[in-house]
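Example record

One chain of 497 residues, shown exactly as stored in the release files.
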Amino acid sequence: MITRRWARVATVALVVMFLAGLLGSSPYVDLALLLLTDLEELDAGAYERLLVLAPHADDETIGCAGLMMAAHNAGSEVRVVVATNGDGYVRAAMREVRMFPISTAFRRMGSLRQQESLAAIRLLGLPEESLTFLSYPDRGLASLWTTYWSNDLPFRSPYIRSDHSPYALTYNPDAMYSGDALLGDLITLLHDYRPDLLVIPHPADEHPDHWTLAAFTRLALAYVEAEHPEYRPDVLGYLVHVGDYPFPPAFAPHGTDRLLPPPPFVEVGSRWVSLTLSDEEVLRKRTAIRAHRSQVSTIGGFLREFGRTTESFAVIERPRPLQMLAEGEVFLPTTWFGPDEAAIEPVLIDPVRDQPMRRHVPSADLAAIHATLVEEDTLIVCTRLRGRRTNTLSYILRVVAVSADGVAHFSARSGYNQLDPESALTDRDMVCEQVPLDILGDPWIVALAAEARVPGGAALDSTAWQFVILEQGESPFVGPPMVVWGETERIVDSGLH
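Predicted structure tokens for this chain:
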């Protein structure tokens, strides 16, 4: 009979063995040691104007404090734009009011977090005037991207119970909580400030507010660059929420005081750069992190993990023109060739094995998005899986199409117990859909994404949104678009072969 004491000892031993296997011989650690120690060093002083976009009032500090200090100390102009005030964080609000918060408590939390960001900026040596608050809805940005584009149908925050900003510190007090308004504000900021270095959340960040702000900002930049073709700022992305990030974990056997990109993100060929902080900058950053008192009291351990000697940034590529299919089977991207007789490459390669579940379930691990044009009027979109698809999961292809007249949404669903239109194909490790461009409003640019989801449940994997340019679409006009929202959904039977 095993005694309770020995049961505890055995449990501890198993946990230690598991962690040793996970961290000691993990490909994450080995790859980091081999490949990530010699990242290209970012020269913060090479830019005249730095613009940092943060989803919440603290992301600018944990993700970019070192870069902001280095650029400022080198004589660059630095501006920080915070999209939301973080007023939807229930746990932090409850700590402040000692009860389940009502709308006034959430608003007080939003104002408090604004003041915390102002305090952090001062501690970094930057003037308060460098900080701008857009005051869009916390935990609501994704809804602006997927549903609430029109000012006539704005999003209403369930936390502060408002469809517009109630805060005095707001960049555009007249803005409604809509995708149109947020996109317009970002276009105006980019047009007026003209940063030569733009730093945004990484498009593959798993927090909805983070990936949404990245998507809106990239679309806004596409508008500005279409109006001013000579304007081409460098764009970097910083990670906050993905897998077991920050990486490597502080308790890893091969621990390091450097902040490194997750190995799956490097394996897909993306380019990363690193910024080394001085001892004084590390100290200032850690002090600035503590200025976000309301967040340190709830997730302080996580925030402090970013106070390391380096910061890492991904180089974000610009949208590329979508290639025309000249040869190949329509629903088999591995056979696609363009007019130049070169193979048509994926428009997006997604990190694989980036979560424990995905490492063990290849059918839920998205690997790439492929897209091409057929006969100039039909968009073909495919997502490729790391393993064979399964009928027990739903696979969703999403399109956000932007034309001179507005925005249209399209989604195609393939999977469990679904219907069977003739236009789609799911085969082996691929799910494809064809979309006539006229139902998308003949767009000039489209954003593509894919999901693997438990039917009626949570998403098991989702790609970043990737933008591609359709040259035959009408060019955008100057200024924010007048958005007309529309959506088409197609349900696809995954049993097709």
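Notes: Residues 243 and 466 are 20 Å apart (CA to CA).
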